[in-house]
């Protein structure tokens, strides 16, 4: 059991690492630090990941593209073959969801 837990934690860390390489093209901060990722679960046995994410606005020009960018990034992780990305709008994203690092980068602190 502990091996699975450690593997899950390690796999989750790798997924977070690649999520930090995906950027909203209008904001020079990655989607993880922006707080656009609402949920992340990995299943090492199934070699899969499930992501719940949002966008900064429903009319975001990359609404059709960004989930695919996220899926491709996550599928690049060794140990992940399948990735499901669900776009959600509740709760609506706002600047309070950004990390302190993101706020600093955008001069909001």
UniProtKB/TrEMBL annotation:
Alphabetized InterPro entries for the sequence: Fe-S_Maturation_MIP18, FSCA_dom_sf, MIP18-like, SUF_FeS_clus_asmbl-assoc
A Pfam entry, by short name: FeS_assembly_P
Residues of the MIP18 family-like domain: 12-86
Domain of life: Bacteria
Transmembrane segments: none
Protein name listed in UniProt: FeS assembly SUF system protein
Lineage: Bacteria, Pseudomonadati, Pseudomonadota, Gammaproteobacteria, Candidatus Competibacteraceae
